[in-house]
Write a structure and sequence with these properties.
With 939 residues, the chain is an alpha+beta fold. The protein has 29 helices and 21 strands. The chain has a six-stranded mixed sheet with strand order 16-17-18-13-19-20, with helices on both faces. The chain has a five-stranded antiparallel sheet with strand order 15-14-11-12-21. A hairpin with a 6-residue loop joins strand 19 and strand 20. Helix 8 packs parallel to helix 10, helix 17 runs parallel beside helix 19 and helix 18 packs antiparallel against helix 19. The longest helix has 35 residues. The chain is elongated.
């Protein structure tokens, strides 16, 4: 992967205008799609397969008058007045008539004086509620209808006696559409300042912001365009915006920081860009993939709107990764060598108080990162205990977390729906804001009215039920409903307990009344969503932690590194939950952070926080620990037989690796923290706890876990941190995220020093029994590989053709080093497994299509005479510059085939160890190839 990214970075550097115009074109297309296709966001929540959702669907079919969204108008009489006075009653009744005729979407307008409904006037007769039922969900009610509704309510307030109160609210107005404020721009300003300090250049500092903003623009436009095909909540674009900005800036930062360091060391800018994208870019792609997997894993909960949110956020991250590895090198192509920034002044040594003759010159002052990691690794056990205990204490408020869907009670206090919510709770009780509905089919009943009254009386006896507002069948008497007013608020845990209690009576009421009852309504749906999200946390946690263990084991070839990474992630998560709990449940700093109401937090905060923080934590783990591993692998003492020597090398690698990557990780952590925390003070009530959790989690994970706890644990583990069982090492796939292949290509750039199409030194393939093979095949030449095992010959042929990775040694084919450039070799080197070919003619034609530098044909001696003639004819018609390599257990048959094809001279290489020899061909063939270059082979 690193070599592919290196090539992509080099191409982007050379063609910056093409890359820039392509991304601008993508932005234009996405923007046009959003304008043309955008259908708006939808804040209605549904959860298929739950009782509450099944109940709503049943009501939609048989009782539409109570299945849609609702609104309510509360009227509070002036002091000393009664809501039943004629001065109030006449105006309210007249308003109810207006509301009933307001729009076709209004199914019913219920007066507080309606004798069929109880509880619409409070016990003190000082307040009454007008209830409106609409057709469809809140998003189906047009803005014009809502404006007309507000006008009617305003007219009513003007007609009522002075001192009275009128407020409009209800489910229709319970959610607000979040937007972006100037506060979020402060986060970008802080990010810019951090980048300026990091790069020491205003221009260079602006490039990561530019790429991040462009990526966010594309992803946001794409999300709004997708609303034409999928239901997208209003929180989804803001979550994508927040994540897109954070990872977009950080991913560009990682690549540009590596590039700037290399340019400062004198590396050519183009070469430096290719290296930076191949090395840091590989880590960026790996980190981005982990975030993608975690976000897509939000589908574990089985809740459609959350799955959509995860997919949308993962799309924003994918765009950020793509822009980082293409547009970032393109912008560097515009900058050329002007990325070095202002040179850093060398640190002056501290002057001794009294200079004495013969006193050695004091060493330059050490960088803060060096002093920090030295201090951490000097007392690693003490540091580890302090971090773990400290984060454990911070996590204590997480035990108080209660989850619920947002309602009007969490809106700002100046919001009309919040004012109505508080007024209803004050006059009628908190439960009036979240009624529950019992519904079932009563088609077999001969007396539906009495049946529903009896059922309502039974329901009223249950603890937690304040009153039964309505118990009635529908007009066709096939479905009945019982509207229940709980004693507690919709987001109160006691209301969730009441829902479970009602469901516990299902079998009892089925036997007594013959009704299959379901508990539903907006409040019940919210409770079911919260319960399902809570149940999904454990499997999702197992998924992301298991994923981190597997991925990091593959990347670092270690067992302890993944374990420490997963343990650090758990500490960051629970500490982040603790800070959210302290603010939103305990009320600490709630006023300073503009928290509208202390209480339950939005249900999907924990699972989103777990998914997003997992990916970001793996970013920091990879960038820090990969540098430590690189330094340990390159330290000769790391391979010493003496354990103490290896341990000392491991400790040096921890310190040098930390010092080398601390600046970038610190900048990345500060930027992400700034972006996330900017959404907290003025953010939407749904997004605020998520943003705070992410900001706190990032700060804790970057600075306390990755930059403090992990170095301490690595110091404790020493050389054991890099040990892995041999059997596990063999079965693990190799993933190059550290740019090892790029560095290998750089070191072997001058090898083999000639124009050989095939060059191998010390090539070893244990499966083929090949040990330390040396091979050179010149352009246009021909060679035969022979040996005692056809399977071994096939493995060697597939290796040269880029289909199998070599185990050891060097191998370059058609100028491309393997295994790093295996993808290119597979695409440009023809390979035919002749003996197993189902259609030899077609396979040969495909292998020779275009102008391949090399064609490899395995097992020619197992072909029939007719097939060998066909192969010879094809090779005879091929370009003379194409090199031919064939394998055969019997080299004589292969030599005859190549002679018929006019290919020669031919070298025969016995892979079993015999010395190679030059085969003699008929004079015609020799004459035809008299001027061809020879093949140098050393076995």
């Amino acid at each position: 992967m690193s070599t592919l990214l290196s090539s992509l970075g080099r191409w982007s550097y050379r063609h910056p205008w093409r890359v820039l115009v392509s991304w601008l074109l993508a932005l234009g297309i996405a923007g046009a799609g959003a304008l043309v296709l955008g259908a708006g966001t939808d804040n209605s929540f549904s959860i298929p397969g739950t009782e509450s959702q099944a109940g709503l669907e049943q009501l939609n079919r048989s009782f539409p008058a109570v299945s849609g969204t609702s609104a309510q108008i509360i009227v509070v009489a002036a002091d000393g007045d009664s809501i039943t006075d004629d001065t109030y009653r006449d105006d309210i009744e007249e308003t109810v008539d207006k509301l009933a005729d307001l729009d076709d979407s209004v199914l019913s307008a219920t007066s507080p004086y309606d004798e069929m409904v109880s509880g619409m006037i409070n016990d003190d007769e000082t307040a009454g509620i007008i209830r409106l039922q609409f057709d469809g969900q809140s998003t189906d009610v047009s803005d014009e209808t809502q404006d007309e509704l507000r006008t009617v309510v305003a007219d009513l307030a003007a007609e009522l006696p002075p001192g009275s109160q009128t407020s409009l609210g209800g489910e229709l107005f319970a959610t607000s559409i979040p937007g972006v404020t100037l506060t979020e721009a402060v986060g970008l300003l802080i990010a810019l300042l951090v980048l300026i300090v990091t790069f020491r250049s205003f221009v260079v500092a602006g490039l990561p912001l530019l790429t991040a903003v462009l990526g966010v623009g594309i992803s946001m436009a794409g999300i709004f365009a997708a609303t034409a095909f999928a239901t997208v909540s209003s929180t989804t674009p803001l979550l994508a915006l927040m994540l897109g900005l954070a990872v977009g800036i950080d991913y560009a930062l990682f690549i540009m920081a590596r590039h700037q360091d290399q340019v400062r060391e004198g590396v050519d800018p183009e070469e430096s860009t290719a290296r930076a994208v191949g090395t840091a870019g590989s880590a960026v792609v790996f980190a981005g993939v982990t975030v993608l997997i975690a976000l897509i894993g939000l589908g574990f909960a089985g809740i459609p709107f959350l799955t959509t949110m995860g997919i949308a956020a993962s799309a924003a991250v994918a765009v950020a990764v793509a822009i980082a590895v293409t547009l970032t090198p393109a912008l560097l192509g515009f900058m050329k060598g002007r990325v070095a920034g202002r040179p850093r002044k060398p640190r002056k040594p501290r002057k001794p108080r009294k200079a004495k003759e013969g006193t050695p010159t004091p060493a330059p002052r050490r960088r803060f990162s060096d002093r920090w990691v030295t201090g951490v690794t000097k007392r690693p056990i003490l540091v580890s205990l302090a971090v773990v205990l400290g984060l454990g204490i911070v996590a204590i408020p997480a035990l108080s977390l209660n989850l619920a869907l947002p309602n009007a009670g969490v809106l700002p206090k100046d919001n009309e729906a919040r004012q109505s919510y508080d007024l209803v709770a004050e006059e009628f009780g908190a439960g009036f804001n979240g009624p529950l509905i019992l519904t079932g089919t009563i088609v077999t009943s001969t007396d539906p009215l009495t049946l529903m009254e009896d059922l309502g009386d039974e329901v009223a006896k249950i603890d937690g039920v304040k009153e039964v507002a309505l118990a009635t069948p529908n007009e066709t008497a096939d479905t009945g409903i019982v509207q229940i007013i709980p004693e507690t608020a919709p987001d109160d845990p006691a209301t969730a307990d009441l829902v479970r209690e009602l469901r516990a009576h299902h079998d009892e009421w089925l036997d007594e009344f013959g009704i299959d009852l379901k508990v539903t309504g907006f409040t019940a749906v919210g409770i079911d969503i919260s319960d399902q999200l809570g149940n999904a946390l454990l499997p999702f946690g197992v998924f992301v932690i298991g994923l981190s263990l597997i991925l990091l084991t593959i990347v670092f070839r270690s067992l302890w590194v993944p374990i420490t990474a997963a343990a650090g992630y758990l500490l960051s998560i629970v500490a982040g939950f603790g800070i959210v709990g302290a603010v939103f449940e305990w009320g600490w700093f709630a006023d300073a952070l503009h928290v509208a109401k202390v209480g339950p937090i939005i249900s999907f905060m924990p699972i989103i926080l777990m998914g997003v923080l997992f990916g970001l934590a793996m970013d920091y783990q990879v960038f820090l620990v990969s540098r430590m591993r690189e330094d340990f692998v390159h330290d000769a003492d790391g391979k010493s037989p003496d354990r103490a020597t290896r341990r000392a090398a491991a400790l040096r690698a921890v310190r040098s690796g930390f010092t080398g990557s601390a600046k970038v990780v610190t900048a990345a952590g500060l930027i992400m923290f700034a972006v996330f925390v900017a959404f907290v003070p003025e953010g939407d009530s749904s997004l605020k706890p998520i943003a705070l959790g992410l900001a706190a989690g990032i700060a804790i994970d970057a600075f306390l876990v990755r930059m403090t706890l992990i170095p301490a644990l690595m110091a404790i583990l020493g050389e054991r941190a890099w040990e892995i069982p041999a059997w596990l090492e063999r079965i693990l796939p190799r993933v190059d995220i550290e740019g090892e292949a790029v560095e290998r290509e750089r070191h072997l750039a001058e090898w083999p020093g000639d124009d050989s199409v095939i060059a191998a030194d010390d090539l070893s393939l244990s499966a083929a029994g090949v040990e330390r093979l040396h091979l050179r095949v010149a352009p246009g030449a021909a060679a035969v590989l022979s040996g005692s095992s056809p399977g071994a010959l096939r493995t060697l042929a597939l290796t040269i053709a880029g289909r199998v990775a070599p185990e050891d040694g060097r191998l370059r084919v058609a100028g491309h080093l393997l295994p790093g450039r295996a993808a290119w070799v597979r695409a440009h080197v023809g390979a035919v497994m002749a003996a197993d070919s189902g259609s030899l003619s077609a396979d040969l034609a495909e292998a020779l299509r275009g102008t391949p530098a090399l064609v490899v044909i395995d097992g020619v001696d197992r072909l029939s005479r007719a097939d060998r003639d066909q192969v010879a004819a094809r090779l005879r018609d091929a370009r003379p510059t194409t090199t031919v390599l064939v394998t055969a257990h019997s080299p004589e048959i292969a030599l005859e085939l190549l002679s018929d094809a006019g290919r020669g001279p031919v070298d025969v290489i016995d892979v079993d160890g015999a010395a190679p020899r030059r085969a003699s061909l008929p004079s015609a063939a020799q004459g035809a190839d008299e001027s061809s270059e020879s093949t140098e082979v050393t076995a």
